[in-house]
Amino acid sequence: MQVEGQERPNLTDAASDILARICVQTRDEVARRMAGLPLRELKARLRDIEERPRGFGNALKLKTAEREVGLIAEVKKASPSAGLIRPQFDAAAIAREYEQAGAACLSVLTEGPNFQGHVADLQAARAATSLPALRKDFMLEPWQIYESRLIGADCILLIMAAIDDDRAADLLGLARLVDLDVLVEVHDETELHRALALETTLIGINNRNLRTLRTDIATTLELAPQVPPDRIVVAESGITSRADVLRLAEAGASCFLVGESLLRQPDAGAAARALLGPI
Q1: CB atoms < 10 A from the CB of 93, how many?
Q2: Indole-3-glycerol phosphate synthase domain spans which residues (predicted)?
């Protein structure tokens, strides 16, 4: 498994100009951070970490087994499609609201230029709760996987539109090596088949079209029935109500990654609570 090289995988044909731009920015930022923390030193720091990951996948499996909504509640300040979402942003406070509401897991944006995120947001949110946390970022290079473990992530996101199959398999294998769970994200049928070829349980279906940034939950309605029952389907984006949750659950989704619709409400915890219940 070649996981430590610095080659740049090509984007798939499904990738948009926006995604391509973000990936270029991400690689430049990773190169800058690597200059300050070389891979050898990063690996050495990992040896001093005693705390084990909290079990992101297990938390979702438990909810699925109980036929309850597995809510991955998102902590983010802004996005390219929505602009500034939460002007008064306190990652720790938002995370506590989500935990008190009954969320199964957190998703925390750490990408800076487009989402105004930071690794400190993940650390603050995770420290404020007992919930496992997904690092929501653009994972392109092996160095990022080690960094994710160092900053306390319990799970990483692999976006199939941003990486080729070999890089996806390499990053997935490396994540397992450092005990991180992996959510593999797709947004069309081609990407779904690519993802299903990987040895991963968590399949995220993004209802946002990466070419146009338009959102349509019909994406999950179309793709979720094609996912084998031994995988867990996570519906992402465009989920605004309990009715949306129930409709997507009928198609096969058992977990739901929701951010913007919660964060635009004065009480994000109450908004999260309104999505929960049996499915």
Answers
A1: 16
A2: 19-275
Residues 6+ apart with CB under 8 A from 102: 71, 272, 273, 276
Residue 81, pLDDT score: 86
Q: Which of 3.40.50.2300, 3.30.2350.20, 1.10.260.40, 3.20.20.70 would CATH assign to domain 6-276?
A: 3.20.20.70
Q: What are the phi and psi torsion angles at 209 (to 5°)?
A: -70, 125
pTM value? 0.93
At residue 212, the pLDDT reads 74
Q: What is the pLDDT of residue 15?
A: 41
Domain ranges in the chain?
6-276
DSSP string, 173-186: HHHHHTT-EEEEEE
Q: Which amino acid is at 263?
A: L
Cβ 27 vs Cβ 8: under 8 Å: yes
E strand or H helix that includes residue 203: strand 202-206
Pairing of strands 105-109, 133-136: parallel
Which residues, including other chains, have CB under 8 Å from residue 120's CB and lie 6 or more apart?
91
Q: Per-residue pLDDT tens for 41-50?
A: 999 999 999 8
Helix (H, G, I), strand (E, B) or coil at 258: strand
Q: Looking at residue 215, what DSSP letter applies?
A: B
Q: Which residues of the chain have pLDDT under 50?
A: 1-16
